Amino acid sequence: MERAALVEHMRSIVDLMRAMGLSEEAVARVSRLWGKSAARNGGRTHLLLGHLLDTAAVAEVMWDRYLSPALRGRLEGISGGRGRLWFMWICGIHDCGKACPAFQALDEAEAAPVKAAGLAWGRLPADRRQRWRHDVAGAALLRPRLVAEWGCVESAAWVWPLVAGHHGVFPSVQGLKPGHREVQGRGAAWEQAQRAVVDVFTRAVGFEDLADARPVGALNKAEQLALSGLIVMADWIASDSEQFEGLADARNVSLAGARQRAEAAWQRLGLRGGWNELAIPEDRLSPLTGRLMVTPRASQQELVERAWSMPVPGLMVAEAPMGEGKTKAALAAAEVLAARFGLDGVFVAMPTQATSDPMYTQVLEWVRSFDPELEAQVALLHGKRRFNPTWREIWDRKGASADGETGGDDELSAMDPFDAYGATEEDAEYGMPLWTSEGSRRPQEERDGPARWFLGNKRGLLTAFAVGTVDHLLHAATRTRHVMLRFAGLLGKVVVVDEVHAADVYMRQFLLEALRWLGQAKVPVVLLSATLPPAQRQAFVDAYLSGALSTADAGCPVPEPAGYPCVTVAYALKGKSVATSSREAVPSWRASMPTRIEWLPDIAQDGELLAAVVRNEVADGGVALVVVNQVDRAQAVHRALTKSGFEGQVRLLHGRLCSAHRAERTEECLRLLGPEAGDTRPYRMVVIATQLAEQSFDVDVDLLITDLAPVDLLLQRIGRLHRHSGTRRPSALTEPRVLVTGVALGDRGRPRFLPASKKIYGEWALLRAAALVAEAAGPLDGEASQRAGWSIPSDVPRLVARAYGEAEVCPPEWEESAAHEEWRSKEQQRENNAESFLLTRPREWGSPTLEGLHYAGSRAASEEDLDAVVRDGQRSVEAVIVRRSAGGYRAIDGTWIGVHGEVDDETVVGRLLGGTVRLPGRLTEAAEAKETGLVPLPGWVGHPWLRYARALVLDEGGTAVLGEDQISYDDVLGLVVERG
């Protein structure tokens, strides 16, 4: 067979068909079937068999230069050692359903020669959206042949959904409706042509016949999902008319030609994988000591050693204090896991955009240590990456646009349901519009910068190394269109989730679903947290093991860790689950420090009391961090503080700053107060922040003043206090102190909370936090306590466990049980709300195939909707702030943008988008109102990056009215909303 294949791949498809004994009439008919119409393919028809071979050739390049060794090994196993050939076949056969009347009739010009060749059809539904889609038609045509010729229903059952789902949705078998004339056509001519398309393609790639292509084993469902995504990837690349010009003459179609085209396209697009074959480190700790240049702390060493000890890929949960160096240890563990198990890259998931930026820099340096050229394969996946200076510097140095030229960047194409690769000509006929950027241009012939292709909508995770918000991981667990493409980006990687405790109960349902699929796919996962409740640790282990064992209940209790820090490891081996925790107590790198906890009762909105306390505490120097739970409160504290002599010494950081200001201030705080600050640390500084300061905000402050929050989040905020060793502090602030505010004494001694705090966190969590604070600080109505306070970090696991445990911690008069019942009811409702969007229902988890995965359809139509799917908070929208000026408009920084807002220069576009701000959720309805809502400026219409952006136009006085509220933007305070 191999010798025959070497000869036949050189033949044209016409010669091959004749050699296979097809009649001249059959050859003529198959030679006219089109796959890409001239109208939508750069003016040149591309024949169906040409596209199938192009896709197979792309798949072959992907096999050599993109697939991880682990995946190649699995495909070799299920194909009897013919993994490359089988991967080519399954990727190329995806479009066989285009050989049916429903598709061939879509374009009248292309249909005419098909009819003339003898392939006729009768009346089709007038509404083309009611016609059969070619992906489902392909499965309807192929499935009975697979059953008959493979002689194995089980093999056919998991293969046909890969064909049916290549446009993003997996139908049920009942939806195939075999025998429909739209699919089969009329008469023997159609049946012969359809069989010939499958047989000729199968023979062209190297199999003797369809029976020869039967796999000898099966992938599990998670592996099938990832394979489906890779089929989509190969199809999208082969569908790019700029890379694969049309071939209208079947005599010019051959596998040899397709291979040349695929190789050239891969080079032009600048695509590649990651490590490919990563060498196993000779020294067990060299990933830490040599690669990351750190002197290993005990907790870091424990995580890496546990990575060495796992016999198979599994789940690792690392719990260690804030500032312990968990992320570096996780990267070192990722290297060990990747080298041992044949993985090709890493995805690091962070809780927010703000925390993703510093992590991107850290991962970038780590990847460079393997190969400097790999820096171009590190993607930053969030909508504000254009404002990251390191990201832009790499792109500018490599000679490419920092946001791609295809209009496909996440923050740009996220505004479109489909993009130029994901929607094809028949999608447009079915009401799914194509979207191409007017500013697109052909990629350079030779380029060593990041591949723009990977920056497109839904494709970011396909990059070998990626850092981004955890939403990208959660999206891969939603029942949404093209979910397989996202999951394909996770297979073959090590997945690291930092600050995993930050996922609320709604988001956690998607995280648990993702862990089930990753467990079945044998993707190693490392979860990091400083404040993880024990119940969540158990839930994460259960989810991963249920996937690894393909069962609804793994039933593997996690042993109580011996101490803190600790590492929990879980995996499935020979059909049995294993979960272990650190057997001996692992010492933290620094001794626990007594931290004094004090009350500062205050629920006023004017900020005067907090400002007065700050002035007194840092009168003789020092750095104070004030964390409050509401933007309005942060702005009030800033106003009160700056009017009394602190001008220039205060930094305000919150979510209503425009993108440019928020990035600048975050970078400044990290530079002045981070671990490398040294002599640049200011004599006196006050940082006023909202919850942005809770996570991955590596600053060191002398004093913390914080609104009350649930205990785990309160401890995260305390993690910024006296964080770095060797920092010089004023004599009055040498001991760590926390002043807890945002609470006041209520009736019968029961605490009263800020309304915003209750809305965000719920009363029960705040009551329990208040009770635990009172144990350390004394009663709320008492004088300052001389109690011992908390010992940080040794008390962290105990406090978190008590806060989320079953035992009551509040005094009886606080009536905790009523608050707890209300909290439990809301949590259950949020879990139920998430279930309708999860990728699978619990009762279907054991199903071995992808058939019917989208049982209720795709639940999100656009990326914007998808963000709302995985986060159930109050919806909010983003707007670009522009200022009306005499005769036109200006960007937020004063840059002139034209009479109608028109922008042609990329630098000006960047400045303009630097004014993007997220509006408070309560303004969403007014911003989206049909008659009075925010819309793009006239000059933005048709611009690939601006045409869907909402403009918040401030008049010459600096204000705008939205609904009943007056809006303004202050360069220091950020967005200011005054209620009407």
Briefly, what is this?
With 980 residues, the protein is α/β, with parallel strands linked by helices. Helix content is 39%, strand content 13%.
Describe the structure.
With 980 residues, the chain is an alpha/beta fold. Among the domains are: 2-269, Hypothetical protein af1432 (Orthogonal Bundle), CATH 1.10.3210.30; 593-792, Rossmann fold (3-Layer(aba) Sandwich), CATH 3.40.50.300; 878-978, no CATH class. It is built from 36 helices and 26 strands. The strands form 6 sheets. Strands 5-6-4-7-8-3-9-10 form an 8-stranded mixed sheet, with helices on both faces. A hairpin with a 3-residue loop joins strand 25 and strand 26 (974-978). Helix 24 (505-520) packs across helix 33. The N and C termini lie far apart (79 Å). Residues 1-7 and 400-449 have low confidence and may be disordered.
- CATH third-tier fold name of the domain at 2-269: Hypothetical protein af1432
C-alpha-based Rg, rounded: 30 Å
- Strand order of the biggest β-sheet: 5-6-4-7-8-3-9-10
Gross morphology? globular
Euclidean distance between termini CA atoms? 79 Å
CATH class membership of the domain at 2-269: Mainly Alpha
Q: Helical segment tally?
A: 36
| CATH architectural name of the domain at 2-269 | Orthogonal Bundle
Proportion of residues in helical segments: 25-40%
Keywords: Antiviral defense, ATP-binding, Helicase, Hydrolase, Metal-binding, Nuclease, Nucleotide-binding
Domain HD Cas3-type: 41-237
Pfam family, one: Cas3_HD
InterPro entries: Cas3-like_dom, Cas3_C, CRISPR-assoc_Cas3_HD, CRISPR-assoc_Cas3_HD_sf, DEAD_box_RNA_helicases, Helicase_Cas3_CRISPR-ass_core, P-loop_NTPase
